[in-house]
Amino acid sequence: MNKASRLFCPALITPKNAVVKQTEQLSRSQKLLTDLGLIKSGSNGTYQVMPIAQRSVDKLIDLVQSNMQLAGGQKISLPILTPTALWKKTGRLEGDISEFYMVRDRSGKQFLMSPTHEEAITAMLATTSPISYRQLPLRLYQIGPKFRDELKSRFGLMRAKEFLMKDMYSFDVSEETARESYSAVSEAYDRLFQQLEVPFVKVNAATGMMGGSLSHEYHYVSTVGEDSLMQCSSCGFAGNSEVLTTPEKCPSCQSSSLNEVRGVEIAHTFLLGDKYSKPLGATFLNTSGKPHPLIMGCYGIGITRVIAAALEVLSSEQELQWPKLIAPFDVCLIGPKQGSKEQLSAEVVENELLHSVGQLCGPQDLLHDDRKDLTIGKRLLEAKRLGHPLTIVVGGKAIQQDSPKLEVHFNRGEKLELDLSETLKLVAEHSRHKKDLLVGHFKEDGARKSQAIGHQL
């Protein structure tokens, strides 16, 4: 069980009547996460993640990893530093590299602080002993920091210079089997974003500097998004404006309900072919024992960006709201104030709840706000702002002789007064819903389905 009195949560305190100079445009999620002490700015475009937010990061990592493993992924770790010589071989160093960090070691050798790892992982396979077609497909992934020297870093974790990313790379014997890998990983992405229960759109995308023949983007629709999308208000279809020339009618339902919206890109998939394997000499031995270039795909998810963008979509101006599966805590329990007349009797109920709720949701997902020197009202206000899915208050009504009641507050603003058994039933239902999401039992809600353009591979 976690105690609020022990949590390191350095909330931003602005002195009364202080004039705060705004140096950049803030997004809703950035302001809330910073004000509540969940992240701190390290320098321009970099952020320190505090314990409460780190819990959400760790939960999302676990969720991503379970889906990657279901898609046949094997986890690896690659160095952050990639020799620029590899990027010269693939021709990518000749493009626009203004966003990349370059460093040199003491002998003068130049490295990239990797924004992505296509060259690094392909070179790794090129220097591996001959790979047989029997070993393929290979689907290798990692989760780690990436770096981009953003010209305009803004909106906190959504557009930072250092960010956490999951990147997977697939290796196949042919274009046909590469498309099978692409389909398997895409299905895992669809499942992941359905589990998060944040409305998303999936669109055909330009391949850009990554290259290849096929690409899809996943977006959360938000006014702070940097990508322009065309979305149909009738059927939910969406397309990236870079790919979709503005039509008069929706390509999916033929209605005239297309509107321009902004999207935050949270994931991207590419079918790369031999763009990297050929110049770097990454081959496999085919059925005749002859070397042939590996056929590749790559698949990225912005871990920290997903969290920030999801909060941007779900939260209000004053209160965070988390996707259920990655909320830092499931339940916050607030007990009576120190010295109140109901304290001793209410603490009996509080202790019973600590035991029972901890068994239902797991002690690691229960936060006990044990700061009893603070009023219930102050602790409840903070709990609402932090966005706990359920907050249970053990106050004066909990010791009423005729009908003892607990206050249960939801992160959407609803409040119920329930007896002990009803409260525990509600916690059990919440835990059951989380388990359903984890095994893939989704509501057939149109708002939560992906809307895809050209989804056929």
The number of helices is: 10
Whole-number mean pLDDT:
91
Structure class:
alpha+beta
Which consecutive residue ranges, at least 5 long each, have pLDDT under 50? Answer: 444-457
Strand-residue proportion:
25-35%
How widely separated are the two ends?
Answer: 47 Å
Shape: elongated
Helix content: 25-40%
Q: Rg to the nearest angstrom? A: 25 Å
Largest sheet data: 9 strands, mixed
Number of strands: 23
Question: What structural keywords apply?
Answer:
disordered C terminus, 23 strands, six-stranded mixed beta sheet, 10 helices, 457 residues, alpha+beta, single chain
Word description of this protein:
- The chain is α+β, with helices and mostly antiparallel strands and 457 residues long.
- The chain has ten helices and 23 strands.
- It has helices at residues 28-35, 51-70, 84-90, 118-126, 175-195, 277-280, 303-314, 343-361, 376-386, 420-438, and strands spanning 2-3, 39-43, 46-49, 74-75, 81-83, 101-104, 110-113, 131-132, 138-147, 162-172, 201-204, 214-221, 227-232, 238-240, 258-273, 283-285, 291-293, 295-302, 331-334, 366-369, 390-393, 406-410, 415-418.
- The strands form five sheets. Strands 4, 9, 10, 11, 12, 13, 14, 15 and 18 form a nine-stranded mixed sheet that branches. Strands 1-20-19-21-22-23 form a six-stranded mixed sheet, sandwiched between helices.
- Strand 6 and strand 7 form a beta hairpin.
Write the layout of secondary structure elements.
Blueprint: E1 2-3, H1 28-35, E2 39-43, E3 46-49, H2 51-70, E4 74-75, E5 81-83, H3 84-90, E6 101-104, E7 110-113, H4 118-126, E8 131-132, E9 138-147, E10 162-172, H5 175-195, E11 201-204, E12 214-221, E13 227-232, E14 238-240, E15 258-273, H6 277-280, E16 283-285, E17 291-293, E18 295-302, H7 303-314, E19 331-334, H8 343-361, E20 366-369, H9 376-386, E21 390-393, E22 406-410, E23 415-418, H10 420-438
Parallel strand pairs: 1-20, 4-9, 8-16, 19-20, 19-21
Antiparallel strand pairs: 2-3, 5-7, 6-7, 9-10, 10-18, 11-12, 12-15, 13-14, 13-15, 15-18, 16-17, 21-22, 22-23
Helix pairs in contact: 2-5, 8-10
